[in-house]
Design goal:
The chain folds into three domains: 163 residues, Rossmann fold, CATH 3.40.50.1980; 100 residues, Sandwich (Immunoglobulin-like); 110 residues, 3-Layer(aba) Sandwich (Rossmann fold), CATH 3.40.50.1980. The protein is built from eleven helices and 17 strands. The strands form three sheets. Strands 5, 6, 7, 8, 9, 10, 11, 12 and 13 form a nine-stranded mixed β-sheet that branches. The longest helix is centred in the last third of the chain and has 26 residues. The chain is globular and about 75 Å long.
């Protein structure tokens, strides 16, 4: 954790071009040996890369297409950390698997950096939680082909109050039975539900869902894996601290301090890199402040509540639709519900997280007379940005451009 003394010194250090925003430089002695650093997911990877430069070989654990919440570290990951000089992650509220991972590490010399240390705060916005397929006990049936049914629509995370929409797929035309189970209960069939669509309003308790295909004679012939709908509001804490440019500066400082502790010979190098990146973050922060300072409409509507730190920093209001999957077209009732929200808040744009601007998003936009736009939560870096060799600052500026469609 950065101590109070360092926060007090920070404004003084910013005035010196040759001194870091976080630490003072040394005599300039350097070492050619590269550090070995493992980072958990994209934001901490980039922040570390910006400071460490060519003095470190940095491994990214959670790559494109993986979910940082529900990631399962491999034996290779554990071996890499056991042989590393430093491991950087955000928080247990973001990377749920960190505690288990660290318990598996046998490296007494490892420097561990938790970049959320001292920066988290309770807010009025919710925290995303992970959702995945769980190997729970399935519905008891005789002679059912296991897992021939595919369930679509399980999103990355859910909050209490989200409207969960799932859809079942099977190679034959069939009728359906849907079963649910709470953590402490038994499997229950949902009465009257015989088509391929399942809708449910979530609450604070996890829910298990399974779809079973039924033939013309009423025999259950195939079933899906059990979908675990994990609800974890984390007492209204949001883990997305990297989306606040001001807090991003503090995270860069933490990484710089750790690098200097591990490799003091290159202190001046790390200090200069950190200073340069912090100056870019300050420019970004001022761009957001300038864009929103005189705005009259300060609300924006998102698919999931991942942008609370941006809202809090710049005095904006985040409104979440919640539970809208890009895999499953919403029902007429759900579209009508969204339409009322759009009308009540005079919403011009509905924002989807990166990768979510699909035909389903456009359907919602057409039915509610709105536009759609992408906001980058930066849990991963999109393929489009990677292909253009763009990074954190570029994605945050794309977010700013998109938010201006609503905040004006």
């Amino acid at each position: 954790m950065i101590n109070k003394k360092r926060f007090i010194l920070l404004p003084m250090l910013l005035v010196a071009v040759t001194i870091s925003a976080c630490t003072a430089g040394n005599s300039g002695e350097t070492s050619d040996a590269q550090l070995s650093i493992v980072s958990s997911f994209y934001p901490v990877y980039e922040f570390t890369q910006q400071v460490a430069g060519d003095k470190a070989d940095i491994t990214l654990m959670v790559g494109s297409g993986a979910d940082p919440h529900s990631y399962e570290p491999s034996a290779k990951n554990i071996a890499e950390i056991n042989n590393a000089d430093m491991f950087v992650y955000s928080s247990e509220k973001m990377e749920f698997w960190i505690t288990s991972l660290l318990n598996s590490i046998d490296n007494e010399e490892l420097k561990i950096v938790r970049t959320a240390e001292g920066l988290e705060r309770e807010n009025h916005f919710d925290t995303p939680s992970s959702t995945g397929m769980a190997k729970e006990d399935s519905v008891e049936s005789v002679s059912i082909a296991p897992y021939d049914v595919t369930v679509l629509g399980v999103a990355g995370h859910y909050h209490s109050g989200d409207t969960l929409t799932l859809r079942a797929q099977f190679e034959e035309t069939v009728k359906w039975r849907w079963y649910t189970k709470k953590m402490s209960g038994d499997w229950t069939q949902i009465d009257g539900l015989t088509d391929d669509r399942f809708e449910y309003t979530t609450n604070k308790e996890d829910l298990f869902v399974q779809a079973v295909a039924v033939d013309a004679e009423g025999n259950e012939i195939a079933q899906s894996e059990v979908a675990r709908i994990h609800i974890d509001d984390h007492d209204e804490e949001d883990p997305h601290i990297w989306l606040d440019p001001v807090l991003a500066k503090d995270q860069v400082c933490m990484i710089e301090e750790a690098l200097i502790e591990v490799d003091p010979d290159n202190e001046a190098y790390y200090a200069e890199n950190a200073q340069q990146f912090i100056e870019e973050l300050e420019k970004l922060h001022k761009e957001y402040e300038e864009a929103f300072k005189d705005a009259e409409n300060r609300s924006f509507v998102v698919q999931h509540q991942a942008f609370g730190y941006i809202a809090s920093r710049y005095n904006l209001t985040q409104i979440a639709i919640g539970g809208l999957s890009t895999e499953v077209e919403p029902s007429p009732a759900r579209i009508a519900e969204i339409g009322k929200l759009v009308e009540a808040n005079n919403v011009p744009v509905i924002y989807y997280q990166q990768g979510g601007n699909s035909a389903i998003a456009q359907t919602v936009a057409n039915e509610t007379d709105t536009e759609t736009a992408i906001l980058h939560d930066l849990e991963i870096l999109s393929g489009e940005l990677r292909g253009k060799d763009l990074g954190y600052l570029d994605a945050m500026r794309e977010n700013l451009k998109a938010l201006k469609l609503s905040i004006n």
